[in-house]
Amino acid sequence: MAATIIIVDDEPDLLDLLKLIITEKTEHHVLTTTNPYQALEWCREYQADVLISDLRMPQIEGIELLKLLKAQDKRIPFIIMTAYGTIESAVEAMRLGAFDYITKPFRKEQIIMTIGKALAKRQELLGPTANRNSAP
Amino acid sequence: MGILNWFRRRGTPADRGGLAAFQEKYESFKRLLDANNDTLELMARLEAVAEGDFVFDMQFIRSRSQAILAKVGTIVTELNLLADNRYQALTDLFASLADRISQEIAAPLADEGIPLVLPLTQVDRRHLHQVGGKNANLGEIKNRLHLPTPEGFVITNAAFRLIIQQNGLAERIRTFLDHLNPDRLDELASQSEAIKEAIRGAAIPEELQQEVERHYQQLVATLGYAPMLALRSSGIYEDQEYSFAGLFLTRLNVPFADFFPAYLEVLASQFNRRALVYLCQKHLAHREQAMSVGCLAMVPSVASGVLFTADPMGRHQDVMLVEAAWGLGPAVVDGTVTPDHFVLAKKPAVALLSQEIHDKPVLLQMQKSEAGLATVAVTGEQRHQPALTQEQVLTLGRYGLRLEDYFGEALDIEFAIDPRGQLFIMQARPLLVEAPDTAPGRTATATEKERLLIEGGTVACFGVASGPVYLVQKDEDLAEFPEGAILVTRHTSARYGMVLHKARGMVVDIGSATSHLAILAREFKVPALVDTGVATEILQPGQVITVDATHLRVYDGEVPELLEQAQKRSPSPIVTTPIYVKLRRVLRWITPLNLVDPKLSDLTPENCKTLHDITRFAHQLGIKEMFDLAEKASQRDDIHSVKLKTHIPFNLHIIDLGGGIEASRRAKFVPPEAITSIPMRALWKGISHPDISWAGPIPIDMKGLYAVVSRSLTASSDHSDFWSRTFAIISFNYLNYSSRLGYHFATIDAYVSDIRNDNYITFRFKGGAADEVRRGRRVRFLGAVLEKLDFEVEVTGDLVVGRLWKYPRELLEEKLDLLGRLMGCARQRDMLMADDAVVDWYTEAFLAGNYRFAGCPSQPTPPPAGPPPPP
Description:
The complex is a heterodimer. Chain A is an alpha/beta fold. Helices cover 46% and strands 21% of the residues of chain A. Chain A is built from five helices and six strands. In chain A, β4, α4 (87-95) and β5 (100-104) form a beta-alpha-beta unit. The two termini of chain A are 21 Å apart. By secondary structure, chain B is an alpha+beta fold. In chain B, strands 25-23-24-26-27-28-29-31-30 form a nine-stranded mixed beta sheet, with helices on both faces. In chain B, strands 15-22-21-17-18-19-20-16 form an eight-stranded mixed beta sheet. Chain B has a six-stranded antiparallel beta sheet with strand order 10-9-8-7-13-14. In chain B, α19 (678-687) runs parallel beside α22. The longest helix of chain B is centred in the N-terminal third of the chain and has 32 residues, at 18-49. The interface between A and B is medium-sized, with 20 and 19 residues.
């Protein structure tokens, strides 16, 4: 099933690479942005299935974005990308309800697998009869 | 003379005593080994990431590059500590590489504070993000390398942004780029024209007008006349690893009165149809677009052309290719005329290997007394004369080598010759070099031969492809180009690059492997043949063909065997994304290894081009320094040493740097079993092997004896010291063993630990009593045995050096054991080697464990074994 995945990171290069990998390996729609607020808006606008976010961004930290997303919609799994050496923050993100974290650099199969698991979680959160289009 | 002055050198801690100073050096050596090991691991991991399976960001590239820089910095420092700062050149080289890497990984500067216009004399790689790759490189060539380049100034990306912003075009351009569809060429043409029109009509901000005026007047003052200008585009992503070959506009011979319309025209060219398609093909369309323009005083070229500092097809090593024609440059890269072709050797010095001079019936020149260019006929003998003199070709080649060396990669260089014969470098950009095709040469099978349509031409991109022929005769034909077709055309026009992302292969009548279209074919990995002469005549539209570019053949229909081979070579698109491109650009200063020859004579700081080279250099020289130090230390009287209690008749003195001898058993005399040093134990095992004889003279033939006696009488060496002391400087992992046995001198320097990357053995054997021929035989014997034992062997005169690196501990222990046996066997063995044939026999005998050489064809009765080793 084609899902909508939103990715936010302050580095356009990483966004391009992730988008290429995900669209090459899956049918999912991928939207990328360097602006966390834009990502949040898209989550609402496009009924996103997964949000993948960097931990460190100039506008707001990934943790803050996670809190805003949770306030907006608890049913969108949030995957956080961290750099080596920021594991504590990743653990903190998990405590605050992030679905998973992934440490850069990571293998392309790893992100595909993590997205797969997040989508299964998404189904579970929506419930067996839930309609994706219903308002949160 | 026993005491050596290394302890007495200025700044060395002689007062602290010999052993303390030695220990300090040894600690440096160990830190060097540790850093070497870490560096190699970091490099290997970074290289693995670059292969295309990972997701990473710029921060990752930065942190890993900095980690490697820190480690290599340690290596350089420790080597200099070890060698009393004798490798200062390496420190300088490291600093320059660190500088280059820092430039590559630097975050782009914000536009604030970036001038709208910069004189070319102030431009270098630090301005990459403001002036684009082409201008940044030209600035480096002018200001760092000081090679002749035109004078001029650069209008930066900041100026482009200012124009877009002040004319309210930013949003329009963004929306336009967001909706690009490279497969709808017709639609694209009208959209592209509208955007270009908007840019052409843009108002030039007042401050930009003033700045350009000011810089032009400065240029006039510098030159002493008001020059016509060449306006050369330098795209924001151009010349990094995206060639954009021939996609943007260059305006030549522009009078200053027409400056701004020409400038806007060049800016608009980044939205021409071909460039837009390329942006889509390279996944760059959604990125910020900007263009900087180099404004250079026109060089009224009498001849011009391109220099490739490597064979782009990777077929020939160490050559450079030059193509040149009369007049201005475009004629060469556009394929308007068939240029003269020169092949230069790079080594040992630049030399002309061959030249092909063609008929050049037309040339492109500046219009006399007005703007624009004119194509004029070349008449008389000039048509067939070489466009460059031999001296010009050689000078160009020498410039090419300097540029390649400086930029650290193969380059595509444009040059021009002015009427006085002065050579100018007009631009330099990375040259994509194909990996040499390893497909074996194959002859077409009988069936294939029947289907052979074309044989010959020039390969522009290796590979095999099959598909229907699509004949392109004019630009309009491109719009209908079907996915998966073979592009067949008459010329190598860069315009045809627009369909290369859809083409499976390409066959062209006329054109060279250096043309823009050929560059694009390689960039898109489209198997391509050019210069076939007949493709458009023979190949019919819609006809399915197989292009075997590698073997210069075109077949009718599909040839499945050939296609199967080709499938194995398909590259991942991931490695062409910008982040991978950036990683590769950083890696070129880090991982390539140029010091592949293990000979010490080639190990010079000048031959180091990358951090990997520095690492290799410092590792090798560190071992050498450590060896020299140990050798010198062994000759000091004030260094405390112990003697080995053994039945074997030589005086083995041991200096323990720590952990080499069981602490509880330290005394003036220690038994062999008290040795805890891993390499020393292993070596001792071999030395004390029951079949090895160290006692008494070895039987010699009379000629050999004569040689020993005569040498003893004539040599100035202290032969009274016939059974000199043998030294071993040890620690738990380290051994430096120097032994003078009879007239030969053998040394072993080894580090053996559980960390494989640190481990090495260096074995040297020199001298001997017999005449040179006989000594040579022994050296050959030793060399042959060492080679069989997997050593890298270098033989110079009667010196044999064997080296072994990075083997696991157990294997090195085994090799040291065998070296112990070999040294025993080699003792005075030269005197027995009466003829050449016997060398092979000895080698085989040793390897078979016949250490007493029983049954040697030219040997008297084998001697009895020495006394048994101590229990």
